[in-house]
Amino acid sequence: MFDAFDAPGQWLRGNLHLHTTVSDGELTPQEAVDGYSAQGYDFLAITDHDRVVDMDELNNQGMTLLHGVEIAPPGAELGQTVHCVGIGASEVPEKREDDTPQAAIGRLSEICEACFVAHPSWSSVTFADILPIEGIIGVEVYNHTCHTGIGRGLSEVQWDDLLARGKRFFGLGVDDAHCHYNDLYGGWIMLKAQEPTREAIFAALRAGHFYASQGPTIESVQFGEETVLVECSPAVECFAVCPMPGSGSTNWRTSDVREARTSYELPLRAGTDPVRVCIVDEAGRRAWSNPCWRS
């Protein structure tokens, strides 16, 4: 199913991962809200570590504010923790000494509207760590603070490895800003919702009616039997990515001219499934559609 671009509603820009002075960030919650509002965001979640900020106490500055929290249970392959963000959580789930990632994330998923695994590349979390976890909608394909801080903000490989093994996971773009350096306003999702309310945003998030971006805009993605047509803001590269061996397509297959275009039609072999679209603008910034499962 793939109807983010055909679904009714309006496009909303939002960030779902952010830290403040309530945990280890530099901005107060209200300073964070003020900043994102000034940048034209429509919704924002504050997701402090093991703390929930009461968003109803803040001046929303015209945005829809979402409660959230980030937890980090131990138990990954290399001895690290598995960070997970819970959107819509109004409390922190209980911590237990014998926690596994599934146990802790399972409790989080019961008290929130949507959970996703944060920054797999930064955490050196492998697809094998994530594969057995139930109760999540996807993974961060792009994390801006991890990109600007240590150059490990992209997690496309982990996402594709999970898709190849049958997981129907979405890919999210976030800031995860702490403001220890310039890590604001670099990753977000564009979400198609019926209205800019918490309930509508939660429903669209769970349905995958969004795409992730560092800057470019995806206007539409239309699949035919043997092609995919992408309409977008000016981009110099367009990929139709399939996680299965030898599958997918790029604009390099149809032209060797690297020029900014707003429309691409890429060939797809029969049986190419699932497929996600990625575009790259002249500045090297990317946008990623969620996967389309065509069968």
Describe the structure.
The chain has 295 residues and is α+β, with helices and mostly antiparallel strands. It has two domains: 10-213, Metal-dependent hydrolases (TIM Barrel, Alpha-Beta Barrel), CATH 3.20.20; 218-289. Helices cover 18% and strands 28% of the residues. The strands form three sheets. Strands 3-2-1-9-10-17-16-13-14 form a nine-stranded mixed β-sheet, with helices on both faces. A five-stranded mixed β-sheet has the order 4-5-6-7-8. A three-stranded antiparallel β-sheet has the order 11-12-15, with no helix packed on it. Strand 16 and strand 17 (286-289) form a beta hairpin. The longest helix has 10 residues, at 29-38.
Helix content: 10-25%
SS field, number of helical segments: 7
| Average of per-residue pLDDT values | 96
* N-to-C span: 8 Å
Shape: globular
Query: Main beta sheet, described?
Result: 9 strands, mixed
Oligomer: single chain
What are the secondary-structure elements, in order, as H or E?
EHEEEEHEHHEHHEEHEEEEEEEE
The CATH C-level class name of the largest domain: Alpha Beta
Number of strands: 17
- For the record, the CATH architecture of the largest domain stands as Alpha-Beta Barrel
Structural class label: alpha+beta
The residue ranges in which pLDDT falls below 50 over 5 or more consecutive positions are none
Please identify which CATH superfamily of the largest domain we are dealing with. Metal-dependent hydrolases
Number of domains: 2
Strand order across the largest sheet: 3-2-1-9-10-17-16-13-14
Residue fraction in strands: 25-35%
- CA-based gyration radius: 18 Å
